[in-house]
Amino acid sequence: MAPEFDFTRRNFLSTAVAAGAGLALTGNANAQTAAPKKTSPNGRIRYALIGAGAQGNVLLDALMKIEGIEIVAVCDIWKYARDRAQKGLKKAGIEVKVYEDFEDLLATEKDIQAAVVATPDFWHAPVSNACMKAGLNVYCEKMMSNTIAGARSMVQTMRETKKLLQIGHQRRSNPRYLFTLNHLLRELKLCGRLTCANAQWNRTVTLELGAAKSVQIKPDVLKRYGFDDMRQFRNWRWFKKYGGGPLSDLGAHQIDIFNWFFGVKPRAVTAAGGVDYYKDYEWYDNAMVIYEFALPEGVARAFYQVQTTTGAGGGYWEYFMGDQGSIKISENPSVTQIFRDNPPMENMPDWGPYVQKNYLAMKAAPAAAEEGAKVDVRESKKLEAYALPISFNKAIHQPHLENFFKAVRGEAKLNCPADEAFGSEVVIFKANEAIAARRTIEINPQDTEI
Amino acid sequence: MSDQNETARMPVNWDATLAFWLLRGWLGLRAIVTGLEKYAAIGKVMKPWVDPTTGQPDPNGAMIEATQKIYSLTNYAAIPQSLQDKFASEPLLPAALLKPFYIGLGPALILLGVMLWVGIGTRISLFAQGIIYIALTAGLILIKADDGVAWLAIHVALIAVALTLAKHNKLCILKKW
Description:
The complex is a heterodimer.
Chain A: H1 13-20, E1 45-50, H2 54-63, E2 69-75, H3 79-91, E3 97-99, H4 102-108, E4 114-117, H5 124-133, E5 137-140, H6 148-161, E6 165-167, H7 175-187, E7 194-202, H8 219-224, H9 230-234, H10 245-249, H11 251-262, E8 268-274, E9 286-295, E10 298-307, E11 316-322, E12 325-329, E13 337-340, H12 352-356, E14 361-364, E15 384-387, E16 390-391, H13 398-408, H14 418-437, E17 441-442, H15 445-448
Chain B: H1 3-9, H2 14-37, E1 40-48, E2 63-71, H3 81-88, H4 95-118, H5 122-142, H6 146-165
Antiparallel strand pairs in B: 1-2
Helix pairs in contact in B: 2-4, 2-6, 4-5, 5-6
């Protein structure tokens, strides 16, 4: 489905329409490894930030810590946001030009090699496609688009232009996640046979975002960029024409981890949710989703919950459970925990050597059972707890951005190219679809492949 | 007749001299290392995780936290904070004396230990060490840390024996004091 507002003035719809019409796509993920090496004469990669809102600022903080790159322009339709970014950069001794319209930016800034896109979701495809067609490599925040057609058009443009398109599923470059997948799950098979997973992100009730009258965007400007009014501009995540709601805002990261760690896409999704708490929003303020994965060892199910009505004790994580152990991982290291099960198995490995080799850190030996401590005779024996010894002292998004710029230099492969992200994002769209349909939806392999 | 002259005329008692040297070595070591330890802290450092299979650092930048002992003037802590808190709540330990005692404890132990080893003011060094251990004992008695009291009593006993053997000391810079 194409965006409802008029992109034709700038010819941004063409690729989305083509993709929506089922245009055959060719190429493969390896296109993302054939990185161009074009940089500025001083060897620094010059880039623009397009979208300087909350997420744009988070990315900017991480970008400022990366060597060998240089921000030259900031674009945002909101003067308040672009001025704030410009002032912040000026304090750091960096002069940048600011633009309201990204097309003006692309027409003026001819000496840039990359763009970092952090606009509302419905602008991701038009902006990223235009940037790639202008010869830029693009780092685009997730979700790729607010529609599957939009996401597909991005992959198509990436392949046509042979430019890099990294999608901001930043856990894919997080050393702790990479270590867990490569060493604990794949090399050591620490969990044994994975039987299920769950993940959650519960957030305390939040107030609607506003803007003082003096900094509000004029209605004609909002209209030009597809927004109905300032309220919807500030709270775009809650409205269907701009984004995918909490399941895509928060769940996208974590559901992507299900797909990545299991190594396959789910074959079915069952979900429930609704707009049950907030009165004036369109997207579900709570959702519970069950994916069914057909793993080579057997079926595993993954449950995902997102709540925007309760902090529920805090923390967000992805929890992978197997017959020999469980790994609860989060971007927040204090939440991460690993447990060794006590199954009646003869080949159950001793984890002591893993601690000696720094695969694991000992956390706590199980306490001696107290008389009457068990409330139910069927309760499992208390498990040995371990910690993940891996850490990194960088901003959360920094490794993923570093991976992107290394790929631009031809020094690395993208950790999350658009064609890889596409499959993960389709299954998120399918969850919203399952909630609306109130039934289980089958996901065919051809739905997630491109 | 001075003590120094009297000692000089004494026949050499190698048994007593060797006994003193042992005590001199142990008590000096005890004081110096204890004093230095008050400038030590366990710090955390990050180092690359090394793949045991390949022996190479992780290509994805995985780091592990390792503990490392670091000596620095800024790390100085006379006694653990938990012990300081207990002493602070003891009415018989005047707060006005505790602070200077804490400030001087580490440097004093190092200085007294060096004096004993080098052989400058051997008796003064031993006696001052004894006073320090007695002062610490007073605090430990008040907080009922009986193990520590017994431990310090052994130190004081060793010092007392060392003092009685000090006249058999050889190899010192200043025999007086």
